[in-house]
Write a structure and sequence with these properties.
By secondary structure, this protein is an alpha+beta fold. It has one domain: 2-Layer Sandwich (Translation Initiation Factor IF3), CATH 3.30.110.70. It has 2 helices and 4 strands; from the N terminus they run E-E-H-H-E-E. The chain has a 4-stranded mixed beta sheet.
Length: 105
């Protein structure tokens, strides 16, 4: 599955648009990661625990979007975007969406 943020894919022709596809996940912080984050916040530096959690969230949301696109018969997704929103204190949704298409050479 080809996934791009652009409207076109160089060297490919979009022959059919199948509509919007999306994938999301909602993640909550946990006390262990919060304690480490507070310490890192005081001394500075990357908070690896949150970086890892966000990376895993992006991959899970992408996998779900790809599954949605495959269900429609797509072989690519164009105009892919990410969005996030706080659901409640300590929990956030990560959403990825785009347009499922069929491409040919």
């Amino acid at each position: 599955m080809i996934i791009v943020t652009t409207e076109t894919i160089p060297g490919k022709k979009i022959v059919q648009s199948l509509g919007m596809v999306k994938g999301n996940t909602v993640r909550a912080r946990n006390i262990g990661k919060d304690i480490l984050a507070v310490i890192k916040n005081m001394i500075g530096g990357e908070i690896e625990e949150y970086t890892k959690m966000l990376s895993e969230s992006r991959e899970q949301a992408l996998d779900r979007m790809v599954d949605n696109a495959r269900e429609l018969g797509a072989n690519a997704v164009v105009t892919t975007c990410f969005a996030s929103a706080e659901i409640m204190n300590g929990a956030a949704e990560l959403l990825v969406y785009g347009t499922a298409v069929i491409i040919e050479d």
